[in-house]
Specification:
Alpha-Beta Plaits; two-stranded antiparallel ribbon; globular; 4-stranded antiparallel beta sheet; single chain; alpha+beta
């Protein structure tokens, strides 16, 4: 298999983040699916922190919607560039990381 380069984006959110009164991570996944991204997933963390906030864990009775949710997606650089402006708008206050990756198996189709 020839080396295939791609771009992977990781978005650090919280479970309390919303977009038009709906969970932000689900709205991001719906948007990415509609834009034809190769793959995307959302992980609900059991513990973590964002920025300088305290560490939040699933052991707390009332975490207040602050448990981390991580959205990761991968596709070609061109497709990622196309969706990033909208994602920056949707998650304006959250960390978004982009990195070049090598597809070891599978494809972007």
């Amino acid at each position: 298999m020839a080396t295939v380069m791609a771009v992977q984006v990781t978005m650090y959110l919280t479970e309390g983040d919303s977009w038009h009164h709906r969970p932000l991570h689900l709205e991001i996944l719906k948007y990415l699916r509609g834009e034809g991204m190769a793959a995307a997933v959302a992980f609900h963390a059991v513990a973590g922190f964002l920025g300088r906030s305290a560490v939040h864990t699933a052991h707390l009775v009332e975490a207040g919607g602050e448990l981390p949710v991580v959205v990761i997606f991968v596709d070609s650089g061109e497709r990622v560039e196309r969706v990033l402006p909208r994602l920056r708008e949707m998650a304006a206050h959250r960390l978004i990381v982009r990195e070049n990756v090598v597809i070891e198996q599978g494809s972007l189709d």
